[in-house]
Amino acid sequence: MRILIAFVMFIAAIHAKEYYAKAEPYEILNVTSNVSAEVLYTDTASQGKVLGKKPYIVMDDKLDRVELHSVESKIEAVKKTLQHNAKMGANYQQIIEMKQANFDRIKDLKIKSSVEKDREYFDVVTSRNSLLGIQKEIESLNIQLGDLQLRRAQLQKSIADKHLSAPGLVLYQLNVKPSAFVNPGTPLAQIADIRKAKLTIYLSADEAQAAQNKKIYLNGQKTAYTIDRLWKIADASKLSSYRAEILITSPSQFSQLIKVEFK
After folding, report:
1. Given pLDDT bands bounded at 50, 70 and 90, which one contains residue 237?
2. Sequence-separated (6 or more) residues with CB below 8 Å from residue 40
3. pLDDT score recorded for residue 9
4. What's the CA gap between 259 and 257, in Å, rounded?
């Protein structure tokens, strides 16, 4: 029985195909500018290192901050005006109700002249028009407030876009230097996510189907890894081969060749 098992394992080993793949960062991101601004600072000392919360690129945001302060002041002023108008509107509503009640009491009295009744009626209408004017101003102020709040959000985003940070990622490459002026779309840096690593191999259709039911061995060691992604369309540069990616724990050194086997 042992001889049979050994023979089966030997046959399996013969048919196990070896692949070699580089341990690469899980993802390398190309960072481009979202704004037009002058670059004030680049953290050249952090290239190749894991970044913290400190920005690795800082761009000039002085005018944004000045405008943001102005916009925030205007927002507070508009909110106060809205509060005053709301109180005025409530007061006018009470006045209208009282004047309407006075008019309702005299409109059918024969001892009151038509001139007096008309005066009371016009007074009610005038107060209603005044209330409508306040309500119209409130609507206009709400539109103005919405525009100011949108502008505040735009400025806050612009300021954030001028202080680039990527905690936990590696600053792979800087593409700009201080004093450079950048526009939207200008390449700024490359950052790498090394919290995981990936191995990329190319399999034939039969190999791809069979590999999903086998264990993955790396450098001869059995692992619990599985194929994370398997492309359903053959690769354009490697004819009749299907790209497969295996996510693994980050190695101490990237770009090492690792032997991959399916058994």
Report:
1. confident
2. 58, 59, 60, 178
3. 43
4. 7
Q: How far apart are CA 169 and CA 159, in angstroms?
A: 21
Q: What's the pTM?
A: 0.75
Phi and psi, residue 73, nearest 5°: -65, -40
Cβ distance 241 to 203 under 8 Å?
Answer: yes
- Count up the domains in the chain and report the number: 2
What is the Cα–Cα distance from 75 to 68, expressed in whole angstroms?
10
Distance CA 45, CA 22 (A): 27
Domain that holds residue 253: 17-60+168-262
The CA-CA-CA angle for residues 32, 38, 44, to 5°, reads: 65
In a domain, 239, yes or no: yes
Amino acid at 150: L
Number of C-beta neighbours around residue 187 at 10 A: 14
Q: Residue 24's Cα: distance from chain center in Å?
A: 26
Q: How far is CA 259 from CA 20, 22, 173, in A?
A: 5, 9, 29
Q: Look at residue 5 in the predicted model and tell me its pLDDT.
A: 41
Spatial distance between the Cα atoms of 41 and 205, rounded to a whole number of angstroms: 50
What residues are paired with 1 via a beta bridge? none
Residue 2 in domain: no
Note whether 98 and 30 are same-domain residues. no
Give the span between the Cα atoms of 47 and 192, in whole angstroms. Answer: 11
Alpha helices in 107-223 (DSSP H): 114-161, 205-211
